[in-house]
Amino acid sequence: MRQSGAARPAGRPPGALSPPVLYLIVCGAGPAHDVPAFLRLARSAGWAVCVAATPQGMDLLDLDQVAPLTDHPVRADYTPVSPPWPHADAILVAPATLNTVNKLAAGIADSFALALLMECLGLDLPIFVAPNVNPALARHPRFRASLDELAAWGVHVLYERTAPPPVWMTPWAEIIERLSASGLPGLGVGSSADARNPTHVRGTPRKSRGGSSGAVPPPP
Hints:
With 220 residues, this protein is an alpha/beta fold. The chain has a domain at 21-142 and 154-181: Flavin prenyltransferase-like (Rossmann fold, 3-Layer(aba) Sandwich), CATH 3.40.50. It has helices at residues 35-44, 55-60, 63-66, 98-106, 112-121, 135-138, 141-152, 172-181, and strands at 21-26, 48-53, 90-96, 127-131, 156-157. Strands 2-1-3-4-5 form a five-stranded parallel sheet, with helices on both faces. Strand 1 (21-26), helix 1 (35-44) and strand 2 (48-53) form a beta-alpha-beta unit. Mean pLDDT is 78; it is low at 1-13 and 185-220.
C-alpha cells in the first residue's frame, strides 16, 4: 500500500481560497508512530497535510490510521499518484533523524524525501526541521554543524535539546504553533515533487544564497 511519487512546482496564484498546505516528511524515528495525532492537530489548526516518508519512516507509519487523515496518497518514491498533491505552503521534516539532518546539510539526495528537500532548499518554500536525536548522538560535531548550517540557510530548526526520553523532539502541538505563528506571507515557488504531477508552492522567501528563484516547470 506504499503509494508515492513527487512533483515539480511553479508559482501558485495569489488569493487562492483553499487552506494552507503542509508537506510532512516523516523519518524513521519513534515519533513517526504519532503522526496520526499530529495530522488531527494540523487539521484542527486549519492545515491540509500531504505525507511523504523516507524508506525507514515508511516502515514506522501506520498507513491505516494516516490515510483517513489526509486527502492525498502517502508518497515514498517517484511513482505517480492520483490525485496529485496540491500546491504547498510549507514543508515540515518531523521526526528528522541524525542521518536526514546531516544528509540535508551535505546535499545528499538518495531518497525521494531528501530529493524533495534538496530542491526546496534552493527555492523559496519555508522549511521546518524538528530533529529527534538522542543526547549522545546529538553531541556529534557533524550534527551540531548541520543544524547551524541549515539555520544559516533560512531553515526553521525546531530542536528541543531538553525534551525527555524516549522522545527527543519538539512536541507536535508546539510545532503546529510555530507553523501557524510563522504567517507564511507572500507568494513563492516550490520544489519538484513528482516529475509527472506538477506541484506549486507558496511561502516566505528565505535568505538568498545567490542565484535566482522562480517557477520551475514540470519535467517531462
